[in-house]
Design a protein that fits this description.
mainly alpha, disordered N terminus, Growth Hormone, Chain: A, two-stranded antiparallel sheet, about 65% helix
């Protein structure tokens, strides 16, 4: 029996009371309860949203930020890759070992995903476990890449720091998007369990594809006579998640 069915089964009053108490937020003693940072409604309104399938509808306006998060993460993962390789070789004249170091700085922070998950679980910010951390990750990512753009000078050390900090921000966004998706996917009907997460990863793959195409076509100024410099790529990369996702997090 699902939580929603329990809540509507009048033959089980004790289960209904337990369900209601579980959903009530801390300090909430009357009608309003907080089931999560997104759903702060009366009990009746909450039941209506569950009945309509809103929590597991990734394209609903209340969840569209999750879909946009996956798409933007996919884009920014693949978009800067080709421009970065060209920039390292043609502009910075980086030796293979330095190129390898940059690659390590891009992959090493991914081992910290578990730490970000534990942190958001254990330390809520203003009663919210996911959205503030996503905003902080988005801000860190954006500031890292935009800082290199604003610097405007070829500096391998600064580039390495910006890439490392930007990757940390990207990981934080990725973890928060995953947890928000998992939280909502538990409301899926049994016959469609896992569909929400599969959709999210399909959106992420589409973002990867779009980013790869952008990276391959927008950075051929030397050959085609038009395109973006690496500094402009950094500015665009840093702007994508912050502008595309953050405004929809609190809708």
């Amino acid at each position: 029996m699902t939580e929603y069915q329990k809540d509507h089964d009048h033959n089980h009053p004790h289960e209904e009371d337990a369900f209601y108490q579980q959903k009530c937020s801390e300090g909430s003693s009357k009608k309003v309860f907080e089931r999560s940072e997104r759903y702060n409604f009366t009990r009746r309104e909450y039941q209506e949203e569950i009945a309509q399938g809103i929590p597991c509808n990734i394209y609903h306006r209340k969840n569209i930020a999750i879909a946009l998060a996956y798409f933007s993460i996919g884009v920014v993962q693949s978009f800067p890759s080709t421009p970065l390789n060209i920039y390292l070789v043609e502009t910075l004249n980086a030796e293979p070992q330095l190129q390898n170091t940059i690659g390590i700085l891009q992959t090493l922070p991914w081992s910290m995903k578990l730490a970000f998950g534990f942190l958001s679980d254990a330390v809520p910010i203003y009663g919210m476990h996911r959205k503030p951390y996503f905003c902080m990750g988005s801000l860190l990512f954006s500031l890292s890449f935009i800082s290199y753009y604003l610097n405007g000078k070829n500096n391998l050390m600064l580039l390495a720091v910006c890439i490392f900090m930007g990757t940390l921000g990207l990981i934080q966004m990725d973890v928060m998007a995953d947890t928000m998706c998992v939280q909502r996917s538990k409301f899926e009907p049994e016959e469609s369990k896992g569909q929400m997460q599969a959709t999210c990863y399909s959106i992420r793959f589409a973002g990867n594809l779009v980013g790869a195409v952008m990276g391959a076509t927008l950075c051929n100024k030397k050959s085609w006579g038009w395109g973006l410099s690496y500094f402009e790529v950094c500015a665009l990369t840093g702007s994508i998640p912050f502008l595309l996702v953050t405004p929809f997090l609190f809708t």
